[in-house]
C-alpha cells in the first residue's frame, strides 16, 4: 500500500517519464531496431549470397603460416615465402629440387679462376615494367643485402663478392679468397632494378618473375599476384595467386578441408594425420634441409660431466629415437645419421643413435656419474611437437637415473640470453638450424666453425669451439676441387660426430598439403616450389 | 554542456597518455629482446648491436621515452620492427576489420538480447522463462574458442556454406559475429530481464498502470526507458572491449584484426607496434565511453551532464 506522499511522488515520476519519453517512443525504438535488423540481415544475406571464399578457376590460393610482410627476402625467407617471393623476383640462380644450382636470370655462371666467377645475364631477361636486367642491378643488390641490418644472409657469405662489369650483360664476381659455393649463395640474392633497391625489405613488387603484385595488404598479410604480361620466360598457366596469412595451423587445415585454400605448408604431424586420406586432399613430403637437435652446452667447466664426450655419448643411449620418430613425430622426421641432414649436398653419414638404456646406466656408472641433473631448455614452436618430445625425453632420462628439469620459453622471451649463457645455466637446448643454400658446408660453418674470438662475444654455437674442426671446415669452404672439398667435408663431419654434440637429433621432412585440383607442385627440400609450374584442374 | 565535453575530452587525452606511457615502460621492462626477434636467434653480437642502434634500443629508457614523445607530437609512432612500415599505418590497415566485426557483433547482440530480455522479464518465474534461462546460461558458459570451433566445423567443413577463415567475402563475417554475439546475448539479455523486472515493480509503473496504460506500453515505453541507461552502459563497455580486439575469435577464424596483431607484436617484442595498437584502441575505447555518456540525457532528461544530481 502506497502512502499519499509516495503516490504523489510516483505520479510525478510517471509524468516526468511520460513527457521525457515522448522523444523516444516505443515506435521510434521499434523503428531503430527494425532498421538495424534490416542492415544486419542484409549484410548477412549478401555474405551468404556471395561465394563462400572458394578460389576461382584461374586462382591459386595459398596460405602461409607467417606473414610475408614484403616480397623481398633480405630479412625474411621461409618455406612457401620463397615460392611467393620468387614468383615476383628472381635471382641469377636458384636451388633446384636436387639441391643443385640452376640458372635463372644468368645464362652463364661459371668459376673461371679460384677467386673469380664469370656471369652473363640473359639478354632477354626483363622486369615487369619492360626494362632489361642490368649488371648494375646485381652490384646494387649485393650492396643492399650486405648493408641491411639484420640481414639473414650476412652470416652465410664468408666474403661479399665485388662486381666487375665486362660488357652490357657480363661481369665478374671477384673475391679475395676462393668461394666455390658462390653459385649456391647467389641463389638467395633477388635482383631488383638498381634505382628501386634499398638496404631494407622492399615493399613493392617490381621484379623479373612470372607474376606481379596486383594488390597487397601488409597489415593483414594478404597479397594477390597476377601474371606478368611482360614475362621474359614461358608464361605460367595460373592467372592469379592469392596469398593469405593464416597463422594458426587449425585455421589452415580447416581452410584446406573446406576448399577455401589450395595449398598449405609447414604443418605438424598431427595435421598431416588429420588430412591424410581425406578425399580431394594430397600430402607431399620430401626430406628437408633443417636439422633439429637436443644440443649440449659446450660452455661447461672442465670438471663437469658434460665436458666429457663419453658422458654425452652415454646419455644418448637413453633416448629411444625410434619411439620418438614413430610415436611422437608420426614419421614426419628422419633420425639423424650425421651432423647435417643427409639431403644436403656434401652431407656424410657418420654414425647413428642407439637405444640401450642398460648400456647408458652402466656407462654412466663406470664414468663415475651419479645423480646427474640436466636442465633442458627450448622455445615453444622451435620444432613441431616440441613439448611432447621434451616430455618423452624427460621420462627416458629418468629411466636411466638422470634427473632432468624442463624449462620452456615463450616466443620472444629470453631464450637468446640463455643460449649465450648470459641469463642462466643449462645443459641441453632444443634447437634447429636450416641450410638456405642446400649445402652441408653452410650448416657446418654456422654451427661448428667456432673460434675463441667468436666465443669472446658468445657468438660461437653454444660454446662449440674445436679449432681443428674449424680449420677443416675452413679448408672445405675454400677448396675449389670438388673431390678434395668432399674429403674435407667428410673429415669435418666425422670429427664433429665423434665430439658427440647432441643428445639426439633429427631432420624434419618438408611437408605440404594441397587440394587435388592443384597439379605441378614439385616440393623442394626447403619447403618451396615453383609457382610458375603449378596448374589447376578444371 | 560544452564545458562538460571539454572536461571529458581533456580527461580522455590524459587517460590515453597515461595508458600509452605505462605500456611504453612496461614492455621494455618485460623479458625478451626485439633485436633478437628482428635479426633471428643466430645473429651475432655485432649484428644485434647494429639493429639496436638502428632502432634506438641502445638508449636508456627515459631517453627512448623522450624520443617517443617528440615523435608522438609529430604524429609518428615509429617503424614496426616486424612489418618494416610505420606502426600506425600497420594498425590502421587492421582497424577496419576490427571495427567491422565489433559493429556487427554489437548490432546482433542488441537486436537479439533486448527483445529476449524483455520477453523473459514479462514471463518472469514461469516455465517458459526457465527454459530461456537454460539457453542463456548455456550461452554464457560456452567459451568462445569452443563455440567458434563448433560453428566452424559445422558450417565450414561439414556443411560448407560459409568461409572458414579471414574476411575475403562478406560471408566471412557471419561465423565470427555469431561466435562473439552468443556470449554477449546471454549476458545482456539477462541484464535486460533484471532491469525490466525491477522497473516493472517501481511505484511510477503502478501509477501508469492505474491510468490505463497497456502492459505492452508499460514494458516498452516506461520500464525499458528506465532500464536503458544500465543496458546502454553495458553495451558500450562491451563494444569498447571488442574494439580492443577479440583475440580468441580472431585466432579461431584467422580474422585480421588488431587483437591478433597485438599478440604478434608482443611475441616479437615489436615495441612501436605494441604502443601504436594500444594508443589507437584506447582512443577508440575512450571515445565510445564518451559517446555513451553523452547519450544519457537523451535517454533520461533527469541526467544533467557535468552537474551534481539534485537530491
Description of the molecule:
The complex is a heterodimer of chains A (538) and B (311). The N and C termini of chain A lie far apart (80 Å). Chain A has helices at residues 4-20, 26-49, 79-88, 135-147, 182-185, 249-258, 269-275, 309-316, 321-328, 357-366, 386-398, 415-419, 440-448, 452-456, 467-478, 482-498; strands spanning 59-64, 90-91, 93-95, 101-103, 106-113, 116-121, 162-165, 170-174, 190-191, 211-217, 222-227, 240-245, 263-265, 281-287, 290-296, 333-335, 373-379, 403-409, 428-434, 502-515, 518-519, 535-536. In chain A, strand 5 and strand 6 (116-121) form a beta hairpin. The radius of gyration of chain A is 29 Å and the shape is globular. With 538 residues, chain A is α+β, with helices and mostly antiparallel strands. Chain B has helices at 2-29, 34-39, 45-55, 61-73, 87-122, 127-141, 144-158, 174-200, 203-210, 215-243, 247-252, 258-267, 271-299. Chain B has 13 helices and no strands. Classes of the chains: A alpha+beta (538), B mainly alpha (311). Chains A and B meet through helix 1, helix 2, helix 6 and helix 12 of A and helix 2, helix 3, helix 5, helix 7 and helix 9 of B.
Query: Distance N terminus to C terminus of chain B?
Result: 20 Å
Content-based structural category of chain B = mainly alpha
**Secondary structure category of chain A:** alpha+beta
Strand element count of chain A: 22
The pair of chains with the biggest contact is: A-B, 82 and 88 residues
Helix content of chain B: over 70%
Number of helices of chain A: 16
Round the Cα radius of gyration of chain B to an integer and report it: 24 Å
Oligomer: heterodimer
pLDDT < 50 stretches of chain A:
1-6, 44-51
Query: For the report, how would you describe the main beta sheet of chain B?
Result: none
What is the number of helical segments of chain B per DSSP (H or I, 4+ residues)?
13
Q: Largest sheet of chain A at a glance?
A: 12 strands, mixed
Kindly state the percentage of residues in helix of chain A: 25-40%
- Strand proportion of chain B, as a percent range, falls in under 5%
Instruction: Please state the overall shape of chain B, judged from the principal axes of the Cα atoms.
Output: flat
Radius of gyration of chain A: 29 Å
Task: Compute the average pLDDT of chain B.
Answer: 88
What distance lies between the first and last C-alpha atoms of chain A, to the nearest angstrom? 80 Å
Strand content of chain A: 15-25%
- Describe the global form of chain A: globular
